[in-house]
Amino acid sequence: xxxxxxxxxxxxxxxxxxxxxxxxxxxxxxxxxxxxxxxxxxxxxxxxxxxxxxxxxxxxxxxxxxxxxxxxxxxxxxxxxxxxxxxxxxxxxxxxxxxxxxxxxxxxxxxxxxxxxxxxxxxxxxxxxxxxxxxxxxxxxxxxxxxxxxxxxxxxxxxxxxxxxxxxxxxxxxxxxxxxxxxxxxxxxxxxxxxxxxxxxxxxxxxxxxxxxxxxxxxxxxxxxxxxxxxxxxxxxxxxxxxxxxxxxxxxxxxxxxxxxxxxxxxxxxxxxxxxxxxxxxxxxxxxxxxxxxxxxxxxxxxxxxxxxxxxxxxxxxxxxxxxxxxxxxxxxxxxxxxxxxxxxxxxxxxxxxxxxxxxxxxxxxxxxxxxxxxxxxxxxxxxxxxxxxxxxxxxxxxxxxxxxxxxxxxxxxxxxxxxxxxxxxxxxxxxxxxxxxxxxxx
Amino acid sequence: xxxxxxxxxxxxxxxxxxxxxxxxxxxxxxxxxxxxxxxxxxxxxxxxxxxxxxxxxxxxxxxxxxxxxxxxxxxxxxxxxxxxxxxxxxxxxxxxxxxxxxxxxxxxxxxxxxxxxxxxxxxxxxxxxxxxxxxxxxxxxxxxxxxxxxxxxxxxxxxxxxxxxxxxxxxxxxxxxxxxxxxxxxxxxxxxxxxxxxxxxxxxxxxxxxxxxxxxxxxxxxxxxxxxxxxxxxxxxxxxxxxxxxxxxxxxxxxxxxxxxxxxxxxxxxxxxxxxxxxxxxxxxxxxxxxxxxxxxxxxxxxxxxxxxxxxx
Lengths: 443, 313
Description:
The complex is a heterodimer of chains A (443) and B (313).
Chain A: H1 2-16, H2 19-46, E1 50-56, E2 62-65, E3 69-72, E4 84-89, H3 95-100, E5 105-109, H4 113-116, E6 120-123, H5 129-151, H6 156-162, H7 180-214, H8 217-224, H9 227-267, H10 269-276, H11 286-292, H12 298-301, H13 304-332, H14 340-362, H15 367-372, H16 379-389, H17 393-421, H18 431-437
Parallel strand pairs in A: 1-4, 1-5
Antiparallel strand pairs in A: 2-3, 5-6
Helix pairs in contact in A: 1-9, 2-9, 7-9, 7-13, 7-14, 7-16, 9-13, 9-17, 13-16, 13-17, 14-16, 16-17
Chain B: E1 7-18, E2 21-32, E3 36-40, H1 47-54, E4 62-67, E5 70-71, E6 80-83, H2 95-105, H3 110-123, H4 139-151, E7 157-161, H5 169-186, E8 189-193, H6 197-203, E9 206-211, E10 214-220, H7 221-229, E11 232-238, H8 241-248, E12 253-259, E13 264-270, H9 277-287, E14 289-295, H10 300-312
Helix pairs in contact in B: 2-3, 2-4, 7-10
C-alpha cells in the first residue's frame, strides 16, 4: 500500500508541476471568461452610433412645428440615447439619397401600424441587437400610447399596470423540477467536460504506460509491486490530476463570476441590464439579478452541490473504467502510433455517448437516454445531462453501483491484458490475441 | 556442489512456457551465498526469463524457486536488487528525484535514502548531477544512476543483467570493483548475466550456462577451467624440434607447435592426468633447454564455446 501511494504520488506530482498543466489550469477559465468578455467588448466598440430617420408619412406619431420641423408627439417615447438618435420626417428618401445621407437606418410606417403593428427598418449596415430592441420598444410604446388614447378612456399608466405578460414555467410532476430543459444545458456542459477530461487524461495514461514499457522501467517497478497495482496507481494518479484541474477551473470560474458580479453591482450595470430588458424587478445585487433574469434564472435553481458531487463521482468512475482500458492499450504496443487501431474500440462508446447528448437535449426522456444512463460505458456522460434535468435519486444510485461494479471487473480484466502486454516486445498484437491474454492465469 | 553449502538461490526443475515457446525447460541452478554467479548463454537462451523469475516478475509454470532456504515470496523483493538489461529512466524527472523515487519504492525512508544516495553519488562521481534533467545524461552516466538505484537498499541478493554494456573501459573497471566490494564488504550475492566473457573471468566464481532453455554447464569457474584445460600445458624450449618430438613418445601428446626462430619453439602439450607437471618438467630439462612451462590458461570464452558446440553437435 505504501509503495502504491509512492507510485500514485509520482504520477500525480510529475504531471501537476509541468508548465503546460499549470498554464492551462490557470488560463483555462480566464481565457474562457476573457473570450466572452472580448466578444462583448468588440461588439460594443464596433457599434457606431445609429441615426435613424423615421418616415411618418401619415403623421401618426409626429407633427410639424415651424422652426423645429417634424417632432414626435410623444417625446418620452423616443428618449435621447447615447447610441441612438431619431429624426422625423414625412417624406421618404430615395435609395441614392439615403446612401449619401448620414442616416444609418430608415424606419418607415403608415397608419396601418395601428392595426398590423408592423414597421419597416431599412438599413445600410445591419443594426445591432441593441438598436433593434431599442427601436422596437420605443415604437411599441408610442403606438400603445396612441391606441390607448384613441380607443379607451384610460390613461397610459393605468393601461400599463393592467397589461399582462404571462411567463410559462414548466414542471415535472414527479421530480417537481422546473424549467428542466434550460438546466439540461448545464448538464451538457458538465458532460462535455467529462468527455474531454476522460479523453485527455486517458491518453496520458496510455502514453505513460508506453513510456514505461519502451524504456523498460516497468521491469524494475513490477519487480516491486504487482503489475495490476502499478496500472491502478497510474490510473489513480492521473485521474487525480484531472480532478485537480477540474476543481481549479471550478474555483477560478466561481471567483471570476463573483468578482464580475461585484463589479457589475458597484457600477450599476445590473440595474441597467434589467431596465433595458424591460424587467420590472430592479436588481442591484447579483443574487436577485440572477434569480429574476428570465434567461439566467434557471442557473440559480440548479442543485450545484449534487451536480458537482455526482460529477466528481462519475468522473472518477468513468476515468477508472476508460483509464484502465487506455492502460491496456498502451501496454500492448511499443509506440503511440501503433495504438490507433486499438484505440478505436475504446473511444467508440465515449464518442457515442457524447453524440447521444445532443439527442437527449432535444428529447430528454427517450428510452435510449434512460438505458445509456445505466450502461457503465456511457453513464458517466449521459447521466450528467439527466442529473441536471432532475432524475429520481434511486436511478442515480443504481447507475453508480453498476459503474462501481464494472470498474472493479474492468480493472481485473484490463490488468490481465496489461501484465501480459508490458512484457511483449516485437510484434503488434491483434485484438483477438489481446482477448486471449485474458485467459493467461499465471504471471 | 556440496549440499551443506548455504544457497542464496536455488532453482529446482523450473519450467516456463509462453504459448508454444518453451523458455525454460526444467532448469536447476544453485547460487551459493556470497558468490558472484555468472549466468551465461547465447541470446534467447532463457536467461531473461530466469532472471525475471528471481526478480518476482514472472512465476514458473512448474518447479521451485527458493531464496535463502525458503520459497521465494513477494516480501523477498526488499532483499533483491535488480538492474534489468535494457534500462531507462523517466524523462520528465530530475536525476536525484528519480533515484529517490526508486529508493522509496523499495521501502526506504526519505532521509535514509537521501543520505545513501549522496554517498553513492559521490563514490561514482555523479554528485554534480542531482538536479540535472535525465535527458542531459550520457549513456554511461545514466547507467551509473541505474546501478546506484539497484543497490541502494543494500540487497542481500543482486541481479545484474549486462551491467557493463555501455560503459567505457575506465568506468567498466570502476563498476567491476564496486561489484567485488559489495560481495567482500557486504556479503552480497550477485547473479550476473552477461555476454562479456572477460568480465566473467575477472568477476565470477561460479557460472551456469544455459542454451535453448536448458542448463548445459554449471560449476566453479576454476574447476570448469581446469576441466577444459584437460591437462594441456604451454611449453617453451630451445633445442632440436625433431629430436624432442621423437623423444616425447607416449609421455605427452603434441597439440600444436609454433617456432619463433630455428631453435626456439612454443608447444601446447597434453600430459596425462596421472602425470604431475613437475615430473614432466624434470624429464624435459634433461632433453632440452626449457625456457618456460605452465598450465595452459583456458578463457571462459573457450569454455563457453566448447560447451555450446558440444550440445549443438
